Amino acid sequence: MTTTTTGPDTTRSPGTPHTLRRRGDLVFSGTALAAGIIILVTLAAVALFLIVQSIPALSADTSDNHILSGQSFLSWVWPFVFGTLWSSLIALVIAAPIAIGIALFISHYAPRRLAGFLGYIIDLLAAVPSVVFGLWGALTFAPMLVPFYKWLNEHLGWIPIFSGTPSGTGKTILTASLVLAVMILPIMTAICREVFLQTPKLHEEAALALGATRWEMVRMAVLPFARSGMVSGAMLGLGRALGETMAVTLVLSPLGIITFNLINPENPTTIPAIIALRFPEAHDEGVNTLIAAGLILFIVTFAVNFVARWIVSRRAEFSGAN
Question: Where along the sequence do coiled-coil regions lie (predicted)?
Answer without folding.
Answer: none
